[in-house]
Amino acid sequence: MNLLTRNTDYAARALLYMGGRRGQRVSTADIHRDLKLPRPFMRKILQQLQKEGYLVSVKGYKGGFTLALPPAKIRLIELMRIFQGDLSLSDCLFQKKICSCVAVCPLRRELKAAEKMLVDRLKGVTLADLMKK
Amino acid sequence: MNLLTRNTDYAARALLYMGGRRGQRVSTADIHRDLKLPRPFMRKILQQLQKEGYLVSVKGYKGGFTLALPPAKIRLIELMRIFQGDLSLSDCLFQKKICSCVAVCPLRRELKAAEKMLVDRLKGVTLADLMKK
DNA sequence: AATAATGATACCACCACTGTATCATTAGTC
DNA sequence: GACTAATGATACAGTGGTGGTATCATTATT
Is residue B119 less than 8 Å (CB to CB) from chain A? Predict the structure, then answer.
């Protein structure tokens, strides 16, 4: 059980890195050099972040990326949504028929509640929060 | 992101099923018939539960399993530990060097805290709780 | 003896995660 | 204008874990 996949983790690191250099243009090469993250993989991740509106990109020589939003508006939970898909965890693994079984649904209910608590907490975490510490 | 793998999920269902028939001996065939879960997979799961001391097994004709513990002593979190391994989530994906980077560790701290909250909650959930509802 | 169960264990298939590779395009530099 | 260094788009690839199946041995009841 891991809350974050590498996708999300790398994205968070990259954004933290960029948050520390606001105004500067950052290339995948910079991130690769300073954070030792695999370069082509980072490219793909940064491109996704750009598509999602979190980064502004500039092509060409001395191109790169800059944050499109203030760090306080970048939420960890949103990165998870982008790279890990829908957060509705704990969906019933079964057809409705079986799911309506009395023995089964209390389990879902518990998991859903635990999930909600977790997601609610993560909703509160922004890039700015992480930068402060 | 799914809190439970099928392993754990099936195990919980099977235990709930058996919790509803305490004293009776239950075979994988019974579970397969009533819960529509894949039979050989269930066998493996039940064997693991037996090894871990959650079930008592009887071999031979009319053999099967019974709960080895009262439902109040069977905790969801322990099933997760058995089938999903160590619950220390959110381990740093990096070598210590990089992990000590200022930009990185606040992320771990947040995730660890969220994880702890989740695990603490799940620690409170027993089979008996699930049977009540 | 036949049957129906578990014990142990090896094997297998699929898929998501974690990348890599390539070609096209763009923008500065010389 | 050619060169270079960046991104855009996209296709491809390796690998490990999840989710199973299969088989043989053993045991107990009929």
Answer: no
